[in-house]
Task: inverse folding
């Protein structure tokens, strides 16, 4: 991928590329040697950014990761910095074509007989956690959800806010005594749940949302399918449903979706409807009491060994930077290939962030049906975005651009690396469940929380989340593991980062070595031996997608 002589200066991601990526800050006027060529830098090129390796005329194609990522807007001299002015997004069209895709699976002999300790459900699936889930059918119940959350999490040992309550108490004392508030100090480090009453219940989770009434009936139907998928999730041991009564999303609609998705659903499921209750106080008290009884029951379930083929791992990136496609995403991609070779399930989503990588994914589909479904979902999604004056080309955020992701195709080509190189065995629409071993594509927005919400709905029992800028994103029922693209971030935001892929940038580790490290971490996290930072922090982000335009 790069010459030993300059391995810590630049990297070329594909032999066809006409750009190089700076691995460290490079000064204007500096001459960079790479693969028997020399490049005089006409601009300062900061780490994560790119410079051109050939002279370009207006309209010439810019290639990175071996694919079209943009076109020159005017003549550009060799050695110039890539900027939003001199390049604009462009991506090749994609079509179904009969391709005899061949995959060289990695050697997984060292993992072949390993297991993780998970919670086996009656339908045969295995969870990496055992949660009790609260589901509101409408936003009107969010307040009651908050009251119950405070009561149950605080009393049963799942709250993480005690340190902040103590800190506020100390500030109050200092204020009342007329002392300087700057003298108040407290340790605010994240801590694992160590005082749980129910040792085999990993958490009590709440799916607060803003839907269920108003909007369109399609919105209610989509939300019902999503909530049912969460109730059916292998990481969920029992469910409490709160309903107002008059909302669009009726409780029976939700129950119908639960049974449609899993005819043999047999988890404890409690339903409380406020308009049929004697009072708000009675509703909350009944929900707490009966849920407590349910917690007693699911606490009887213990972790048992399961083969790695029972894992279902979602791969996601957010707060991406110019190193995302160089270090963390390819490393997670190698982990994905290891999992696929072991017969596990891998979920790659974020359709707006597959722009430019479509043809490669189409060619990897194992069936014409899957390939054409992917093409249909992508083209429909892109058309919807254009219909409101947007488009996939507007996906990169200001933070992405500042840190080197200049066009959506650059961002997307790097993002797609998380899916590795294995065949695409299935294409899933939003809330459809993953059923086939191997890599599946899941239609979701690129939005961090909407995407992780959708991956969990499709059955992800762990999510690998790469980030270059840092993000605390988590999920209520699926442990999210944060993978940093660079060591600076890993050290700066150690309270939210689990794995550091910076050693790839410095040349201390290969992508393959890092990919194995990530899989090792996944096995421990799936067994409850390691608690990812997002789980420690109760970072339970949940945003349903209303199937509108969201990038």
Result:
């Amino acid at each position: 991928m790069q010459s030993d002589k300059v391995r810590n200066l630049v990297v070329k991601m594909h032999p066809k590329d006409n750009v190089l990526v700076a691995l460290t800050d490079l000064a204007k006027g500096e001459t960079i040697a790479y693969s028997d060529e020399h490049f005089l830098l006409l601009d300062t090129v900061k780490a994560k950014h790119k410079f051109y390796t050939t002279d370009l005329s207006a309209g010439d194609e810019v290639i990175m990761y071996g694919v079209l990522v943009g076109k020159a807007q005017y003549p550009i001299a060799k050695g110039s910095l890539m900027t939003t002015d001199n390049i604009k997004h462009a991506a090749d069209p994609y079509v179904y074509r009969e391709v005899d895709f061949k995959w060289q699976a990695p050697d997984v002999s060292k993992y072949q007989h390993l297991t993780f300790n998970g919670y086996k459900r009656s339908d045969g699936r295995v969870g990496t956690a055992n949660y009790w889930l609260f589901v509101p059918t409408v936003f009107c119940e969010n307040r009651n959800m908050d009251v119950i959350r405070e009561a149950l999490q605080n009393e049963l040992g799942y709250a993480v806010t005690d340190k902040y309550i103590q800190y506020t108490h100390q500030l109050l004392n200092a204020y009342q005594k007329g002392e300087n508030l700057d003298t108040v100090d407290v340790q605010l480090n994240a801590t694992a749940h160590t005082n749980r009453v129910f040792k085999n219940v990993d958490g009590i989770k709440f799916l607060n949302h803003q839907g269920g009434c108003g909007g369109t009936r399609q919105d209610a139907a989509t939300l019902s399918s999503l909530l049912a998928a969460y109730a059916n999730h292998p990481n969920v041991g029992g469910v409490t449903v709160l309903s107002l009564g008059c909302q669009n999303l009726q409780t029976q609609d939700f129950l119908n979706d639960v049974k449609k998705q899993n005819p043999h659903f047999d988890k404890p499921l409690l339903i409380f409807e406020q308009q049929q209750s004697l009072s708000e106080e009675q509703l909350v008290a009944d929900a707490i009491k009966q849920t407590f009884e349910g917690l007693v029951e699911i606490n009887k379930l213990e972790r048992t060994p399961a083969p790695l083929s029972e894992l279902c791992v979602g791969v996601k990136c957010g707060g991406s930077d110019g190193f995302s496609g160089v270090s963390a995403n390819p490393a997670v991609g190698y982990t994905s290939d290891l999992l696929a070779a072991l017969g596990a399930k891998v979920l790659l989503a974020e359709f707006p962030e597959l722009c430019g990588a479509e043809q490669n994914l189409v060619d990897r589909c194992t069936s014409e049906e899957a390939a054409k479904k992917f093409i249909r979902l992508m083209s429909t999604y892109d058309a919807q975005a254009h219909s409101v004056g947007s488009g996939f080309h507007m996906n990169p955020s200001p933070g992405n651009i500042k840190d080197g992701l200049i066009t959506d195709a650059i961002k997307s080509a790097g993002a797609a690396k998380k899916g590795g190189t294995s065949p695409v065995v299935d294409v899933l629409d939003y809330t459809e469940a993953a059923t086939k071993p191997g890599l599946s594509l899941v239609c979701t927005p690129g939005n961090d929380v909407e995407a992780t919400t959708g991956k969990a709905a499709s059955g992800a029992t762990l999510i690998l989340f790469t980030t270059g800028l840092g993000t605390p994103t988590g999920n209520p029922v699926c442990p999210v593991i944060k993978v940093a693209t660079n060591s600076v971030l890993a050290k700066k935001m150690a309270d939210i980062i689990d794995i550091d892929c910076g050693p790839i940038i410095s040349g201390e580790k290969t992508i393959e070595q890092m990919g194995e490290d990530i899989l090792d971490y996944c096995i421990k996290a799936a067994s409850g031996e390691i608690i990812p930072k997002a789980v420690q922090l109760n970072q339970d982000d949940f945003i349903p997608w209303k199937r509108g335009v969201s990038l």
Remarks:
- The first strand starts at residue 10 and ends at 11.
- Residues 368-387 form the longest helix (20 residues).
- DSSP finds 15 helices and 22 strands in the chain.
